[in-house]
Amino acid sequence: MNLPNELRKAVPPLGDTEPRQDLWPRMLLRLDRAPRRVQWLDWALAVLLLASFFVFPQAVLGFFYQM
Amino acid sequence: MNRPYLRAYMAGVSFPTFFLMLGFTVFMLAQHRYQIPVVIERAIVFPLAFIPNLWGFWNMLHLRIAQSHMQWPIGAHGAVVPLILVPVAYAVAREAGIVYFTPAVFAVSWPGLIVMYYLVWKYLVNFLNETLGVA
Q: Considering only alpha carbons, which residue of chain A is nearest residue B111?
């Protein structure tokens, strides 16, 4: 039994695997979209999070362990 | 574009994989500069192997929920992760014999982790999902 031949028989060729259109212009359009505005509450949460590292320094490693 | 679940997985794993570089640096500093008793080769396995995959699968789950036309914000979806993650992380740390990670360390880091996951999922993972066309 010739294994490579058997494999070729069992798995048909994929045929045309190229995308139907160029995807790069669409990717550029997505990247050029206006960035999302960060809400004030989210800024406040981020500041609180940073402040908590100074209040509870022992939690920093536990935090990095789970990110 | 096809294969949306594969793209959702890739968008999900991107941030924790990138963040690992920072995490690894923090663990190195903790061990070698500040002599904190964390055995790095034991501690790094969990964030290296488990967390990126969890994020990938969690993002696939979010795509599945979005496709079923349920209104479920991605920030809230991300904020749920620590509820699952923290008990698993504690169990792994305990089995690995990492004595530094006591229940108190996990309890203190839990609220911050929920906030961090909420923000990262709301902005970064959502941005990656939009970029890859799975938002």
A: A49
